[in-house]
Specification:
Layout: E1 5-10, H1 15-25, E2 36-41, H2 47-59, E3 65-71, H3 74-77, E4 83-86, H4 98-119, E5 125-128, H5 133-143, E6 152-154, H6 157-171, E7 178-179, E8 182-184, E9 192-194, E10 199-202, E11 205-208, H7 209-212, H8 216-228, H9 230-238, H10 244-259, E12 267-272, E13 284-292, E14 295-298, H11 307-329
Parallel strand pairs: 1-2, 1-4, 2-3, 4-5, 5-6
Antiparallel strand pairs: 6-12, 7-10, 8-9, 10-11, 12-13, 13-14
Bound molecules: ligand NAX.
Ligand NAX binds near residues 91, 131, 155 and 187.
Length: about 325
């Protein structure tokens, strides 16, 4: 068997962390043959819930978990980790406006950047889930300059999976038969789920989705808003925010990155822009990517020059620029 991979989850005792740690123990993160040393990192206020979660994980006797432990000390919790799943974040409290949340999380992620840089494995792969995920990731990149920019990502895979579900329901086919929807931009209500390059298997034939979904009104006024507002719809239905679907998407994100994407498969990840598609460096923007040998590559040359796409890409870009301004301005 291979050497265990060290994985740290922040917010490990929360909603998402609870679902995620069991999926990791079941092999969803790195495949069924890769043992894992799992650390759940929490804030001291959550110590009791943390202890209980670790007890349950140990009681599950999951063969892939080489070890499981909890920690409330950041230096210790990130020690040597190869993969950091940054789920914990400060939620929006009563009377807090968006700018307050951006500033509060800006400060948290700035400090976390230092702990990760000083303690994690030098090639640590990071995915930020805690909101505002893209901007939190950009803050890590800014304040942990020794970590390679290409190792810092944010989660938009849940948005991608939600899009696949909407398309498969519309076409009345299984979700596994739809692929290559692209999520552009921010994990927020301004994201742009783009079906222009999506493919579906219909009657055994791989078919471009735009050939079978031609109703522009449905795309603009039902599909896109449904995906953009799905998080709120889940809260309304369940009384709690998405947890298991978010955890499942985290596993998909890391699995694609670590193991690789299938031939012909394009996934979406928010990554530190290298200037592709005119998106400024320093922003964490969701792009279409393929992955191989533990590296992602932005898929180049997709056509987004039409006014429908440009309007939406500019809106999400504008939001990311303003989020970063607000979050970072008071930190420097
Ligand atoms: P919970 O409030 O259930 O859990 C968060 C946990 O993080 C708590 O146990 C808390 O003690 C811990 N925590 C807070 N700050 C921490 C810190 N600095 N270090 C370590 N632990 C810390 O929230 P949950 O439902 O699990 O959601 C977690 C985050 O994911 C939220 O910010 C949420 O907005 C975000 N989401 C992001 C999604 C995405 O697709 N990117 C989708 C789902 C989710 O809404």
């Amino acid at each position: 068997t291979p050497e265990p991979v060290k994985v740290t989850i922040t917010g490990g005792a929360g909603n998402i962390g609870y679902a995620l740690s069991f999926m990791i123990g079941g092999g969803r993160l790195l495949g069924p043959d890769q043992p894992i040393d799992l650390t759940l990192l929490e804030i001291p206020q959550a110590e009791k819930a943390l202890t209980g979660t670790v007890m349950e994980l140990q009681d599950a006797a999951l063969p892939l978990l080489n070890s499981v432990r909890g920690s409330t000390d950041q230096a210790d919790g990130f020690k040597g980790c190869h993969i950091a799943l940054l789920v914990g974040a400060k939620p929006r409290g009563k009377g807090m406006v968006r700018a307050d949340l951006l500033k509060a999380n800006g400060a948290i992620f700035k400090s976390q950047a230092g702990y990760i840089q000083d303690n994690a494995h030098p090639d640590v792969k990071i995915v930020v889930v805690g909101n505002p995920a893209n901007t939190n990731a950009a803050i890590i990149a800014e304040f942990a300059p020794k970590i390679p920019k290409s190792n810092i990502t944010a989660l938009t895979r849940l948005d991608l999976n939600r899009s696949l579900n909407q398309i498969s329901s519309r076409l009345n086919i299984p979700v596994r038969d739809v692929k290559n929807v692209v999520i552009w931009g921010n994990h927020s209500k301004t994201q742009f789920p783009d079906i222009k390059n999506a493919e579906a298997v219909i009657n055994g034939q791989t078919t471009p989705v735009p050939n079978v979904i031609t109703d522009q009104n449905w795309l603009a006024n039902t599909f896109i808003p449904t995906v953009q507002q799905r998080g709120a719809a889940i809260i309304k239905a369940r009384g709690k925010s998405s947890a298991a679907s978010a955890a499942s998407a985290v596993c998909d994100h890391i699995y694609s990155w670590w193991v690789g994407t299938a031939p012909g498969q394009i996934v979406s990840m928010a990554v530190m822009s290298d200037g592709s598609y005119g998106i400024p460096k320093g922003l964490c923007f969701s792009f279409p990517v393929t992955c191989k040998n533990g590296k992602w590559t932005i898929v180049q040359g997709l056509n987004i020059s039409d006014s429908f796409s440009q309007e939406r890409i500019q809106a999400t870009l504008k939001e990311l620029v303003s989020e970063k301004d607000i979050a970072v301005s008071h930190l420097r």
